[in-house]
Design brief:
The structure is a homodimer. The first copy, chain A, has 16 helices and 19 strands. By secondary structure, chain A is an alpha/beta fold. Chain A has 3 domains: 133 residues, NAD(P)-binding Rossmann-like Domain (Rossmann fold, 3-Layer(aba) Sandwich), CATH 3.40.50; 141 residues, Rossmann fold (3-Layer(aba) Sandwich), CATH 3.40.50; 195 residues, Succinyl-CoA synthetase domains (Rossmann fold). Chain A has a 7-stranded mixed beta sheet, with helices on both faces. Chain A starts with 5 loop residues before the first helix and ends with a helix.
Chain lengths: 489, 489
Amino acid sequence: MGMDFECIFNPRSLAVIGASSAFGKWGQMIFSNIVAGGFRGKIFPVNPNEPKIFGVPAYRRVQDIPDAVDLAIITIPADRVPLVLEGCAEKGVKGVIVISSGFSETDATGKELEKRIVSLCLERNLLLVGPNTMGIICTSSGLFATGAPIRPRKGPVAFVSQSGNLGVQLVHWAEQQGVGVSLFVGSGNEAMISCVDYMEYLEGNPDTRIIILYLEAVRKARSFMELAKRINKTKPVIVLKGGRTEAGLAASASHTGAMGGEIAFFNAACRQAGLLNVAVPSELLDLSAGFSSLPLPKGNRVGIVTLGGGWGVVTADECNEKGLVVPSLPQKIVRTIGKYLPPFWSRGNPVDLVGTRDLEVPLVALEEMLKWDGIDSVISLGVVGRLELIRLLVQSTHEAGASMQPEALAGIESFGQEYEKKYLARLAELMEIYEKPVLAVSLGKTDEGIVRPVSGRKYAPVVYQTPEDAVNVVARMVAYKDFLDSQAT
Amino acid sequence: MGMDFECIFNPRSLAVIGASSAFGKWGQMIFSNIVAGGFRGKIFPVNPNEPKIFGVPAYRRVQDIPDAVDLAIITIPADRVPLVLEGCAEKGVKGVIVISSGFSETDATGKELEKRIVSLCLERNLLLVGPNTMGIICTSSGLFATGAPIRPRKGPVAFVSQSGNLGVQLVHWAEQQGVGVSLFVGSGNEAMISCVDYMEYLEGNPDTRIIILYLEAVRKARSFMELAKRINKTKPVIVLKGGRTEAGLAASASHTGAMGGEIAFFNAACRQAGLLNVAVPSELLDLSAGFSSLPLPKGNRVGIVTLGGGWGVVTADECNEKGLVVPSLPQKIVRTIGKYLPPFWSRGNPVDLVGTRDLEVPLVALEEMLKWDGIDSVISLGVVGRLELIRLLVQSTHEAGASMQPEALAGIESFGQEYEKKYLARLAELMEIYEKPVLAVSLGKTDEGIVRPVSGRKYAPVVYQTPEDAVNVVARMVAYKDFLDSQAT
């Protein structure tokens, strides 16, 4: 189709029709979020009843705006949308995002209204996102046009979601976890622009390297799958299909008004296209972190470095259960690592560092494994996250009435922080040298996110909270590599 | 066997042999943690080289302590442990916890040394925890005797772990997530006291209602399973077996020096005994939160209340995939809930509140479902956790240069906080009235833990971060209820 999405994602100016200063209204939230997000172009609020919105002069109608307007974001009630769209066309607006609900997701009248606005937009050359969408985000143009106040950092992951609520929450997670985002679209009712169209755009979008989809109903299933398979060869396509079960399908039908596709067909098509088909939203997030930050493993052989034996066991079990191999180490590597450890260490993979205090050992073990061509990726458990325990220990020691000076205790903590920083920087360096992924596992909660970018580095260290999350990401990356290899031969 | 564990968990006084003021040493960490944890009895540091540890007079030998000593916690090197045990026996100590490593987990010499200390303890009537243990916790006596500074709140969950590191991390999670703990034991090498013995103690321990086990090698497998099955009828036994796969088993053997049991046998025995057999440590934590805080569901029919359609779909899918039913609602309930919602709401289960702002509606929908005898538990998505988004929206509105007063914005946030508090209090009340579990899902990160106790209430609300976690807990609780029913008939 070749729709020109520039007016949606990179408008030079935009109008928020229905902008409001009433806290909690859609027109307030989206207007404030766009302004606070630092959009680079001009922003014009439109509201016939408020002369100013938070100090910004508002216009009665979009036609009254003296400058050119590329994009209109519309939050007014559904029945008034057609008139406003006429105004947009008259004004020379190119794209419209209709946030308003009350269209085909409701009843026959809503369906009629939706048909009417689609005809109108086609006639008048308006590109229409939605209606009934939660909005869009484009980090490269600084456009954060969603009801929820989310501002993920710039990066290579694009999110397209048929559920606005779920999509926004996903991008909010991405923000919290440091996952870099290029674009987000809540596709809403897809009255004019469908997932297939967004996918076509993303295929050519230079800012996007990974595509995350939440789908409930794929209308042009065949074109979608053909396109997805083609894109997947250069940009991993990770998809969650809602409505896989009777209960999910029933919920989905009530939600979007569209019939879900048959899931067996969908799954088979995904397998054939090599798409990464996941079960739950948190997996979309974990995979977006891994695929956007790590080199792809060349095979399924995993090295494990752990500060505690039990965690090594649990991780090795998870690896085997996900089809990953945990190879034995050659004697040479055992000897090298052994120089740094007490005589009765595990002498194998997992490398159990038996709680060593020597801060160099985890990195030595890691590099020995990465050097070896018998291993394709390494999972490192418990170095990051130790800081939290050191912090608690300092506090506990202090509470116990230690005669240690507070400065000495604070010094221990800042030493811990410095070490963690150095450790992560070294992970980024090692990944670049050996072109193999290293996944850290923090075990405990940490204040920071999964992705921990290191300035100037090609890859960013990732820190998952549990071994199962890290193992799952490795397994999925290996599956994707297998797909790529099958395409090459 | 009927070992008397009082000297271990409820000693009137204890000695830390090897107590030290050198930050980061085992003898420093464990001593500081016991003192900071507020242990109710007397604490005597023993160290021949330091006259005082953090201001507390230290004794050269345990025999030099003027008071009676019930428990000795030993952190000195392995080869000196036998001599110190002799001293303990002479002093009339009843129980010893040997933290020190260097026993059967190392080599033949270590094995010999371990045999020697076991004989010595048997001869001299000393109850021996470990050696090579991370320590113990007993919340009722305020005894927090682990190397890591963790202090979970008091509650009904006991943890027994054959991996100290993993066990301690689990209890640390429990602390962070608000799960109430009765006891923790790192069983170490189990030279004298095995898991079976701890289980026997826990069976009769009035503070314990739920038992969590991390096992690698079960030595007396038959007695263990018989006992576990008996206990499981009154106290749910939740178990993670490390070493289920070739890789895990190899890691486990290197770790504890014990051969893992055959996993097929283990799984079959668990099924037969109705034990809750889980795959990853985070599941142990989720289940400990659910089982300790919620009434048991009477069946597998789940009601879902959601603030966004997509999340309802995902949750319904997860329910069906875990064998749970999401029944349609009778017209009467649809009508009642419908009074509070726009005309085109989902009219079914999941109840999609379509982003309603009316703060009463989520509770109305919840109670209508709980009242109905066609539903056994309810999952409530997105009410808790909204606060985070409100907070961000307030911030964003402020950044956008709103003319709103900071006090007005702060008022909105505190209103949100109040509402969340009231909502959770009402959940606790509703669970008590209807004796059905309600699981909240926050979707986003929250500062607080999974368990949110409400003072004076029989049940505590739980808030999981993802729908899949909540659905899994319901499915496991239903499986346990099925086991109980199968035993009753």
